[in-house]
UniProtKB/TrEMBL annotation:
Similarity comment text for this entry: Belongs to the TonB-dependent receptor family.
Protein name listed in UniProt: SusC/RagA family TonB-linked outer membrane protein
Subcellular location: Cell outer membrane
Coiled coil (UniProt feature): none
Keywords: Cell outer membrane, Membrane, TonB box, Transmembrane, Transmembrane beta strand, Transport
Residue intervals of the TonB-dependent receptor plug domain: 48-165
Length: 930
């Protein structure tokens, strides 16, 4: 199937050169693209004068994508930017990776900045599965998203720019009469894929055989009686498809409206939205309300004042993390011969816990309130010199409330309640001068300023047990309040920054920037860091020998270098820490962490070489980039001898590199009065390598992943599965022991302990790409985006339970029916042996390539005749249907979906463990403008 979708993509590219005979409106559109405003740190630029690598995604590209997470709208739209949702839970965390992983132990998320305010982006979940803190932001608020990819663009954010910077600009009012727009939509969701499991007949057949093969069939019969509640399992009296209880048809309801307007002196924009989503997983729901007010006023000819204020409230009903028996997804392990309910109550005699007991007798809710705001002023001291002062505030409050009733699984205390509350405040105060100097052909823009950022976080929790009834679930109804905790933590940054841009006749472009950051997180000897950057551009197409070319519209060569840092290590990694310990209810102090006064930032230096081009009046345009990013002084929590009184200490040890190519191609294939078609294609490669490690470059093995010098970060490190011995049905493994000549012994063994582990793959793709087409024909508009990832693998950490040819009584994947049964059978599934551990060990048996191409989003709309609408007082009326994750083309079979990952440490970042697939959603909607 993958082959088919690639043909679709190639077909789009085939038409790239169509219709090069442009019309006037096409030339105007191309010129607008060149003069497009690009938001950069503490200022703006245009595409023509940009010497950095910045990807821009406009509101037009993200509207009407039926998903509550705005990060989902970025997928496939920016070269070198990989966006992955952990799994199909509504609140699930997102990973945005810009040009590869730039850290091992510190954070790998980019810095998010909304209207100049660095956003709080810390997972505050207490149930082991992440909650995306940015879920509080609605896509309806967003005017544009700029992703600063190279160090030259990100270095203005200094110590927090190593993983890239995502600048979010919210909408503002425009000059003109008041405008009112309304959007209403209703959508329906289903899983992108379902794994096939054994039905009752197959389950009985496999496990009776597994029992016979080890001489213990009576034991199996006893278990089947028990799991079936003593019903007629031999004749399939009960055949439960647990998917029917795990999954449901989800729904998405969106409603938003915006009022905006302005004149020469002021502008305003108010928007409000509601998102009400029922997830595809039972009892996973979300309701979010947002509002935003942006106003600005030209008070005098010199003074401009403004206010940006956003509020959101999000309520999420959640389920357990992937590693809990009570999570719905682990119900697939239950026998299909078990009833889901008996006399209206969830059946408690299932193979493992029946999650329906948790579903009926427990709740887990998370409520998030967020306020973001900025008061800003701009004062023109003289004509070309302006002073800006911004005061920003980000308040994030998350409350979690869990209750487990008397009949909840494993309950022994007549009810259990857990409440937690976290309040986090971020204050940002920025002051900077901007000076524009124009001397004939020479243009200089400078920015210089300071910024202070302080964050305070307070956390409290309380636990209660022994409740009189499940009708009383608040802590004050507990018979015993048996636990509680609380802490307060702070950090601060103090920064000085400057930037200068030079432009000569629009042909020769230079930029230099520097930032000096001070952070409370680092040692007293290295508390301040300096992060410089330089870039240059040469617009070759403006030279005399090309300026009259009818073929080459734009040819610009770019080069940049810069340093950025990573400060995401927690607040006290450099400090001597003391804690309180109790002995016989007498408190005392105990040293918990040694200090390191030399601890400092991880630093990434990045070189970027790029070429921007445009052909045939920019009917064809694009970018080609090569980057080389090196991260030095990786932060490690290194082991130290226990004789020191400690086990670990943070140190700057280790180096990492990322390098690769990015290619972008934009085409306006057809441009006519009633028909237009444009295509945007991007593809990127990333070569990630560990350069050095602590302790003399010793390997660091963590479960089934390894960090080894010369290899990709967190490569899979597994025994290699060799199939099945056709003579006796034993699982076989390649020995892979090193021989004297440096080669490996490729003979096989049925003794797992005789086999050596090898590097067998990596969780990060080597290639990612996307292609978007936008077509307009008369009143119809049609757009779609394909995304693809290639070169990655996924390890199914649940495979050793669910694909083991009947090793224990977990229900099995359908392919286990292809097990070895008779001498001479050729198969990859070993003989069924109950509790025989026949091939169930961690190996490449459960590792699989996760290459895929996905129709990420598709939309079809119709705009009614303008004259007809104006007669009823409507300036625009459009109806549409859109879909996300509509089709997936992949050979991946081990799990539900190639973008489904475990949300706990059980599976690791590149693994799946009973993890939910994403949702495919179809939405019907209407836009009305007045």
């Amino acid at each position: 199937m993958r082959k088919n979708v690639l043909k679709v993509s190639v077909a789009s590219l085939f038409f790239i050169g169509v219709g090069v005979y442009g019309q006037k409106k096409d030339t105007i559109a191309a010129e607008k693209k060149i003069d497009e405003v690009i938001v950069v740190g503490y200022g703006k630029s245009t595409k023509a004068k940009l010497t950095d690598n910045v990807a821009k995604i406009s509101s037009e590209s993200i509207k009407e994508i039926p998903n509550a997470n705005f990060q989902n709208t970025i997928v496939g739209k920016a070269a070198g930017v990989r966006v992955t949702q952990t799994n199909g839970k509504l609140e699930s965390g997102f990973n945005i990776n810009v040009r590869g992983a730039a850290s091992i132990s510190a954070g790998t998320d980019p810095l998010y900045v909304i209207d100049g305010i660095p956003m709080i982006n810390r997972n505050e979940s207490t149930n082991g599965a992440a909650v995306n803190p940015l879920i509080s932001l609605s896509a309806t608020e967003i005017e544009s998203i700029e992703i600063l990819k190279d160090a030259s663009s990100a270095a203005i954010y200094g110590s927090r720019g190593s993983n890239g910077v995502v600048l979010i600009t919210t909408k503002t009012g425009k000059k003109g009469k008041p405008r009112l727009s309304l959007n209403l939509s209703q959508g329906f969701s289903a899983p992108t894929n379902k794994v096939e499991w054994l039905n009752a007949k197959e389950y009985v057949e496999l496990f009776l055989e597994a029992g016979r093969n080890v001489g213990d069939e009576p034991f199996v019969i006893g278990r089947l009686d028990r799991y079936s509640n003593n019903t007629d399992w031999r004749n399939g009296e009960i055949n439960t498809d647990w998917h029917d209880y795990i999954f449901r048809t989800g729904s998405v309801r969106d409603a938003d409206f915006t009022v905006s307007g302005g004149d020469e002196k002021y502008n305003y924009m108010f928007t409000a939205s509601n998102n009400d989503t029922e997830g595809i997983i039972r009892k996973n729901d979300m309701d979010r309300n947002t509002a935003r007010l942006n106003v600005s006023a030209q008070v005098t000819n010199k003074l401009k004042l403004g206010l940006n204020l956003g509020f959101s409230r999000t309520s999420i009903e959640r389920v357990s993390n992937d590693n809990q028996f009570t999570t719905p997804m682990q119900a697939v392990a239950l026998a299909p011969i078990s009833p889901a309910f008996v006399n209206g109550e969830p059946f408690a005699g299932t193979t493992y816990v029946n999650f329906l007991l948790a579903d009926k007798y427990g709740t887990y809710k998370t409520n998030i309130k967020r306020v973001t705001g900025k008061v800003f002023g701009e004062y023109k001291i003289i004509k070309d010199l302006a002073f800006n002062s911004d005061f920003g505030y980000d308040y994030y409050s998350q409350k979690e409330k869990e209750y487990q009733g008397r009949k909840y699984p494993f309950m022994s205390t007549d009810g259990y309640a857990f409440n937690s509350n976290v309040d986090s405040e971020n204050i940002i105060f920025s002051n900077y001068l901007t000076y524009n100097l124009n001397l004939g052909s020479h243009h200089v823009t400078t920015v210089a300023g300071m910024e202070y950022n302080k964050n305070t976080r307070e956390y409290t929790s309380v636990t209660g047990i022994r409740f009189p009834s499940d009708d009383f679930q608040n802590i004050d109804s507990a018979g015993e309040v048996n636990a509680g905790s609380g802490n307060v933590t702070e950090y601060a940054f103090y920064s000085l920054f400057g930037r200068i841009n030079y432009d000569f006749e629009g042909k020769y472009l230079l930029k230099a920037s520097i930032r000096r950051d001070g952070s409370s997180r680092f040692g007293v000897n290295n508390r301040y860091g300096i992060f410089p950057a330089f870039s240059a551009g040469w617009v070759i197409s403006k030279e005399n020998f090309l300026s009259t070319s009818n073929t080459i519209s734009l040819l610009k060569l770019r080069a940049s270098w810069g340093e950025t840092g990573n400060a995401e290590i927690g607040n006290f990694a450099s400090r001597d820490l003391w804690g309180v310990n109790n002995y016989k209810q007498i408190p005392g102090f105990i040293s918990s962490q040694p200090g390191n006064d030399d601890l400092t930032w991880e630093k990434s230096s990045q070189f970027d070489l790029g070429l921007d081009f445009g052909l045939f009046k920019n009917r064809i345009s694009g970018e080609i980039d090569y980057y080389n990013k090196k991260t030095n002084g990786l932060l490690f929590y290194q082991n130290v001898p226990y004789t020191t009184g400690y086990s670990n200490i943070y140190r700057n040890i280790g180096d990492l590199s990322n390098k690769g190519f990015e290619f972008i191609l934009n085409t306006r294939n057809v441009v006519k009065e009633n028909f237009s078609w444009d295509t945007s294609f991007n593809i990127a490669n990333n070569d990630n390598k560990v350069v050095s490690l602590p302790n003399g470059n010793q390997d660091i093995v963590n479960g089934f992943v390894i960090r080894r010098v010369g290899e990709r970060l967190d490569s899979f490190y597994l025994v290699e599965y060799a199939g099945v011995d056709p003579a006796n049905g034993d699982a076989l493994f390649y020995k892979n022991t090193l021989l004297a000549d440096g080669s490996r012994d490729r003979s096989t063994t049925n003794d797992y302990s005789e086999a050596s582990r090898v590097i067998a793959g990596n969780s990060a793709p080597t290639w990612i790409g996307g292609i978007t087409n936008n077509i307009e024909y008369r009143n119809f508009d049609f757009s779609f985006t394909f995304q693809g990832e290639f070169g990655a693998s996924i390890y199914n950490a649940a495979g050793r339970f669910q694909s083991t040819s009947g090793d224990w009584f977990d229900n099995q994947t359908k392919d286990q029916m292809n097990r070895w049964q008779n001498p001479g059978d050729i198969t990859m599934v070993p003989q069924a042996r109950l509790d025989g551990a026949n091939g169930t060990q961690e190996s490449t048996r459960y590792l699989e390539k996760s290459d895929f191409v996905r129709l990420r989003n598709i939309s079809l709309g119709y705009t009614f005749n303008k004259g007809l609408m104006e007669s009823i007082g409507v300036s625009k009326l459009r109806i549409y249907v859109s879909a996300i994750n509509a089709l997936t083309f992949t050979n991946y079979k081990n799990g539900y979906d190639p973008e489904s990952r475990s949300d706990t440490s059980r599976g690791g970042g590149g693994s799946t463990f009973y993890s939910a697939p994403p949702a495919k959603t179809v939405t019907f909607g209407v836009n009305v403008n007045f």
